[in-house]
Amino acid sequence: MKVTSKANTNIALIKYWGNINEELTIPYNSSISMTLDKLFTITTVDFQEKLSSDVIKINNLPALGEEYQRVVDHLDIIKRYLNVEIEINARVDSVNNFPKRAGIASSASAFAALTLAATKSLNKNLDSQQLSFLARRGSGSASRSIFGGLVEWTKGTNIDGIDSYSKVLAPKEYWPELTMIILILSSKEKLIGSRVGMQRSVMTSPYYEAWLKSIEKELIEVRNSIATKDFNSLGRIMEINSFKMHSLMHTSSPPLIYWNPETIAVLKQIFSFREKYGINCYITMDAGPQIKILCLQNDIQLIIDKLNNSFNNLESGQRLTHVVCHLGEGAKIINTHLF
Ligand code: PMV
Question: How many CA atoms lie within 13 A of 210 on its CB side?
Answer without folding.
Answer: 9
